[in-house]
Amino acid sequence: MTLTLASANRPLQGRVSLPGDKSLAHRAALFAALAEGVSTVRNYPDSGVTRAMRGALEALGVPSRLEGGVLTLAGNGLRPFPRSGAVAPCGNSATTIRLLAGAVAGTRSSAVLDGSEGLRKRPMDRIAEPLRLMGADVATTDGRAPITISPAPLHGMDYTLPVASAQVKSCLELAALGADAPVTLHEPGPSRDHTARMFRAMGATVVSAGLTETVHPATSLKPLDGTLPGDISSAAFLLAAAAIVPGSRVTVSGVGLNPTRTGVLDVLSAMGAHISVASLREEFGEPVGDVTLEAAPLHGVEIAGDLVVRSIDEFPALAAVAAFAEGETVVREAEELRYKETDRIAAIVAQLGALGVEAEERPDGFTVRGGTLKGGTARANGDHRLAMSMAVCGLRAPVSVEGAEILNESFPEFEPLLSSLM
Ligand code: S3P
Prior knowledge:
The protein is α/β, with parallel strands linked by helices. It is built from 13 helices and 23 strands. Strands 2-15-17-16 form a 4-stranded mixed β-sheet. The protein has a 4-stranded mixed β-sheet with strand order 4-5-3-14. Helix 5 links the parallel strand 10 (about 155-160) and strand 11 (about 185). Helix 10 runs parallel beside helix 12.
């Protein structure tokens, strides 16, 4: 599918609410499968990646029902999956395969975890090696999927993650539930802490101190009953759209504001957009609020360090904004972007380049010179976020995005919601 958005000939205006956060949705389904009793999760998103998690759980014998945005799932408890030994297809979802690996090992189940061609290219040693240090029996295919896991007793450990990664951290935290002693994890940066928060809400013991988390073994988890906050990673594209169309004022209601995820708001503010947050509240142990962005003149910024970790998924959206800012935006210390759905450093630079933007790769990031976008044809290259970021550029110049159907993996409501603001 080729997507061409109509250019915005007037400011974006209005208020929208979004389907639930994907990171929380993955965890809610998987942790509910490990709970005793029936979980009910409202505002559950229905997209390619959340279907991947639900499909993989169903393959392992834990089906769920999604009706009117409400997920219902009867847990199997912290015991081997009913269809232990099955092949679990994880689609395009790295969060599904990496977190499920921890749950399979932690429940002493066996499984073959596999996925799409794209998923088979992504590194799995980052979970297999520390799982083996705990005693898990894990075989990868040259460090990638398919991953075969067989039952083995797990031990406690003290482990320092080489990169800040919530998927690796959460995989090990899931395995820790079934270990014979606590597992302590140290991280080089503040990756999202949704697993620790949800574990606590389900009755598990997790002790957090700065960049260290310790998960204690558990015998049972309580089921979940709650509403998922809107996905800040989806909100990022609507806020980016509002930021680049002069005079816009857009509110996204009920969006998740976990401080490990709000780097995008800090960067947009630093670039000059006016951002305010109202109606702060809590859901699932997560801060939630209404975010309003008012467009204002934008200028380039430098993004590095913890801010990279706190906006790790938002660089495609931020790169679109950088293309319309005055001066240069420089992203450093962001090598992790090379291990996402695509090598996002190379892909962002190539696709902005296809639209005429002066952008350059650096080994650990990229540079964008604002005000140089002319328009043209960009390619999504199998990356849902790249598709949406290039489409957003189309609000200010004629842009077509080839392969845009991939955005259904994460945010099928993107185009109608953006149109509702135009
Ligand atoms: C996620 C963690 C991040 C992020 C991904 C979702 C999660 O990946 O990019 O979209 O839900 O744990 P890494 O752990 O590889 O940084």
